[in-house]
Amino acid sequence: MSPKKIVPNKFEEFLLNRNSLIEQYAKGDLSKDEFIEANYKCINALNIKPFKKIDNVKKALYNYQYYNVLAKYYQKRAHDLSKASEARKDFLERSNYYYSKKDDVTMKLLILIDFTGVEAYFVKVKSPNLKKKLFEIVLTDYDNVILHSVNESILNRLKHENVFTNEERESLVDSYINQKY
């Protein structure tokens, strides 16, 4: 009798695929555009949806990644079109919607862990539009959990919880966030 093959569920498959894509991007095998496209295709191929109830860190991180992938995909699509294009405006609206969903999940996650093991700071960016706006949230009790936001409510709460350092640092994923689409 052969051992039973363990088949990952869609959630695990997404995370495995995402880790593989991150490795490929880090090695230079994928461009930022290809990375975003591949993540988007994975979500569609697996036909996965976000969790409705966020009651643990894994679910929160999955939802964060889900919304982040969609936000970046639609932002990339918008940037591929002329500024006068109606479709560009639609893509930007979709992107902003998914970024707001991502921010909602970020706040839920921070509350879930009671702001414990959290370091946050502004990130050094090339984009003048993001200077002193984009901040990084590192969950030090977890491996490679790095979140980003420009949401002022999250920023104010991080400051209130005394986990935000009011300084600019190089992002832990600097080459990714400072690379244009």
Give the % helix. 40-55%
Principal-axes geometry comes out as globular
Across the major sheet, the strand order is: 3-2-1-4
Query: Any idea what the radius of gyration is?
Result: 17 Å
Mean pLDDT: 88
Number of helices: 6
Q: Main β-sheet, in a few words?
A: 4 strands, mixed
Give the helices and strands as they follow along the chain: HHHHEEEHEH
**Which structural class should the secondary elements be placed in?**
alpha+beta
Q: Tell me the number of strands.
A: 4
Total of domains: 2
Unreliable stretches, pLDDT < 50, 5 or more residues? none
What is the distance, rounded to the nearest whole angstrom, between the alpha carbons of the first and last residues? 51 Å
Share of β-strand residues: 5-15%
Notable traits:
181 residues; alpha+beta; 6 helices; globular; four-stranded mixed β-sheet
Please write out the topology.
Elements: H1 10-27, H2 32-46, H3 57-79, H4 86-112, E1 118-123, E2 135-139, E3 146-149, H5 152-160, E4 164-169, H6 174-177
How would you describe what is shown here?
It is built from six helices and four strands; from the N terminus they run H-H-H-H-E-E-E-H-E-H. Helix content is 53%, strand content 12%. The chain folds into two domains: 7-112, no CATH class; 113-181. The protein has a four-stranded mixed beta sheet. The chain is an alpha+beta fold and 181 residues long. The longest helix has 27 residues, at 86-112. Helix 1 (10-27) runs antiparallel to helix 2 (32-46), helix 2 crosses helix 3 (57-79) and helix 3 (57-79) packs antiparallel against helix 4 (86-112). Strand 2 (135-139) and strand 3 (146-149) form a beta hairpin. The model has no long low-confidence stretch (mean pLDDT 88).
